Amino acid sequence: MLQLHGLGNGLSTAPLVTNGRTRSITAENLAGEKGQGGKAASNLGTARKGRPCIDLKQGETVTLAHIQGAGVLQHFWITVTDKTGAKGHQAQYVLRDLVLRMYWDDEETPSVEVPLGDFFCNGFARRSNVNSLPISVNPTGGMNCYFAMPFRTSAKITIENQHAYDIGGFFYTFNYTLVDELPDNAAYFHAQWRRERFTEMGKDYTILDNVKGAGQYVGTYLAWAALERNWWGEGEMKFYMDGDDEWPTICGTGTEDYVGGAWCFSNLKTNEPESYSTPYLGYTYYKETTEIDPWSGHQVPMHGMYRWHLPDPIRFESDLKVMIQQIGHDHSRLFERSDDVSSVAYWYQMEPHADFPALLPVQQRWPR
Fold this sequence. Notes:
- The structure is a single chain.
- The protein is mainly β.
- Helices cover 4% and strands 42% of the residues.
- The strands form six sheets. Strands 5, 7, 8, 13, 15, 17, 20, 21, 24, 25 and 29 form an eleven-stranded mixed β-sheet that branches. Strands 1, 4, 6, 9, 10, 11, 12 and 14 form an eight-stranded antiparallel β-sheet that branches.
- Strand 2 (41-42) and strand 3 (45-46) form a beta hairpin.
- The longest helix is centred in the N-terminal third of the chain and has 4 residues, at 94-97.
- It comes from Paenibacillus violae.
């Protein structure tokens, strides 16, 4: 059974004893070795919180975890500052400047390549709390992931510091189980980030494309900066699968509908958007136009939201493309609009995967 190989993480599997071996990687036990945790020394002596974190040098790529053998990554936790002490834009966007990558079974190109904040549904390089089943972000900036990530021969997780400065105090823990074997149908976890600073009028935004093979799509995160007046979220979510050409098999009814909200997320008393965060659906970040300082002027309205297809995965057999429209409403009619949209697609598929589009340079990832 699937849960007997370390893939189950629900209450129903808690009583089931298996032959899996639990391990954990931290800055004090870099290889997750048995009986080697917590040995580093501090001013209090040996094994007294000697190395709880690492520093990231500017331009450096650090391997956080390199695991050999078959297993399942079950949970990881990361926290880091969201801005460095220096002034100016270059210091403000740590969560977009750090790039998280994951490689399964010694593959050459990553199956996960996402700015750190966006992976944890913290787009715009700004912290926000998230209370969902696979992603949880807690005060202050404690970022947790519970997606099960199986691998058959190895797993490697890296972080690249593309920030303008060194970053001190990068904390992390990776919890995983080593197993003798995995089921043949255990697919590999993937996540991909994209952005269009100005979406093309009348053309749907591409969240994911060029996925070949069998798998299932399990989630979307959207960081949507509204560049025009009036309501921005009438666009429909589309899933093209298994040979779909002009028309998708699945087409939704609107952007806020896709993430489980309704009527512009509006609180009927205040007429302002109202945030929420649930196990599978959330609208967790809303920032209206606000003057922040004389040099920066005003920000555009920013909206962060997620949808997890865990009870209802989008299953595909040969190919998948995911898109969303940019359509607004001005209280009288629909209209085509152009906005600044960033996204993360989360899915499982059997390897090999197609190469991802080149990640945008660091300054082109910064929010407005």
